[in-house]
Records
---
Amino acid sequence: MVSKVVNVGIASHGELKERALAIARGDRRRGRREPHIWFTSIESFAKVLSEPNRALLRIIDERQPQSLKELEDLTGRKVSNLSRTLKTMSRYGLVSLETGHRGTVRPKVLVREVRVDLELVG
């Protein structure tokens, strides 16, 4: 299922750990509008969602390649590079990597838009 918009948050590892512990203790609940995807820095956010990687997502969404080899042919990026990039995006919930016929891996875009939640002071 493709989500149209996902809220993305940026917080330090310590802040994320404290947030998770507070939720686990029952001291707080995740709000409806809180981010679903968290990055530990602006740099990691920028790296994962760089212009080349956003272009990759557009190609996957528009062309719906049936394998990483087909995606390599469409993008000119090596399968090893695509695999590494897509695994990272998969960990963040941006894409899924479905196993297809004869072990091929088919990438699928799960998120079309992100909104960033970044606390500047607090």
---
Amino acid sequence: MAAQTCYSASRYLLAQGREELYLGDTRQASEKGWRAAAQMVKHLAEQRGWEHQDHAALYKVISRLVAETGDDDIRRLFHVAVSLETNFYENWDNARNIDGGLDDVALLLDRLAPLGDGRHIPGQGG
């Protein structure tokens, strides 16, 4: 999947999350926010030939992307996305916090999108 296509698909999931939130379904809003973030991270890992099949691998991908870019906000924003996934299962967070989490996922997508533009050569960096 091309970087722009992946970014668009992630943005679409994020928009679905906002619609779910508008309809009052914080669990589904949370899940869509998580999936938007995870899809982009998996795409970047795949481009680089990195493992990405489970949560532990995704945490490693995030660490490698932070090392590659020097942008520690990637780590912080990813943790917000993980908290959205937790809310899908636990349903303990409120709509205002979920809305803020979706905003943070949007920031994460914006930070990750340029990393998938083909400039990275698999096997180098991270």
---
Amino acid sequence: MGFTLYYRNYGKKIMETKFSKILVPIDGSDFSMNAAEYGIILSAKYNAELDILHVLHPGEIGEGIHYFGTEVPEQTKKLIEERKDEVHEWFDSIKNISKKYSKEREIQIKTEIIESHSIVSSIIEFSEKNNVDLIVIGTKGRTGIKRLLLGSVASKVMTYSHCPVLIVR
């Protein structure tokens, strides 16, 4: 079961790859939500598991997440919880979108939030640890820094990933 991709060379099948577990890292941006929809479509069509991941980075809440084992101030803890609530709303939205694509059976969607200082490393480690076959990621995220073609996270995930990466606008 799963998605089968054929690479063709002048009509001859040269390689066959099966995708049965798909990872979509999200940050709430339109690009990441578009990537989630692509992940849903692929999961529904080819009966693949779908993992939706958000990496909670210190920059999202004012640089206040767990520095070298120090105590996190109450205000920062509150901001972290508010951010997690927002992420859970994104997860719920993705699950609702999945209902329109799941005709015969419900799509298996797992969600996770990881707190980390390195978004790229967290995505790569998660994909390796969970035997992900395909990463579907948006071209750019929520940050104001824009690259010419790709966001820095998408570009680095594509560079360091052990599996194929589908980049979505």
---
Amino acid sequence: MQEYLDNGLELGFLIDRKNRTVYIYRSEKPVEILKNPDVVKGAPELPGLILSMAKIW
């Protein structure tokens, strides 16, 4: 993910299905780690993006 951030990525999700964990990468910010979330939101970079995790888990 760091390579993507270095090349201009503003928002990235890394989804670990086995451990039901989502890592949210944003430029210039520390990684946010969510354990077993119901939804993942893309705001403020992608307002309106809401990813329902029920379909992924």
